[in-house]
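Here is one chain, start to finish.
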Amino acid sequence: MIVCKHCGKSKYVKNGFVRDKQRYLCKECGYNFTDTPLRGRSEVSKALAILLYSMGRASYRFIGKLLNVSAVAVYKWIRKAALEIPVADPVGEIKEIEIDELWHFLHQKKTNDGSGKPMIVVSGVVSPGLWVTVMLQHYNDSGKGSTNPNAPISPIIGLVIPK
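Its structure:
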């Protein structure tokens, strides 16, 4: 049975030929269409691409080669799926503290252990049961206009265990 590709209704009339194929005009929405298969990949292929990427095991290029599509198409599928995910509001408050890890634990600074530089630790509960801590290191040029792109960031993600 032929249905409109735009609205899905089956009320149509013949409306000439295009590239040697019968063209139809939908009486409901006025859309012209032919009885050819829809273009693009199936939702199953897109779901597989999203699953492979979200598990962190495959790149856009690898997924594209696997499914015989371009890496840009894979990127667009994943981007579209990401925009449909609701944004969770952080639960609890996020505090920012500055510590010098060696001074607090050893009561002296030894430059042969660790960096010997003060660290900034940001931590908090971002969603129920998920606690995140990020440690950042100051640089000597932190007050200047440019930032160092090679700044070390050490994320620590763990589960919050209720007391």
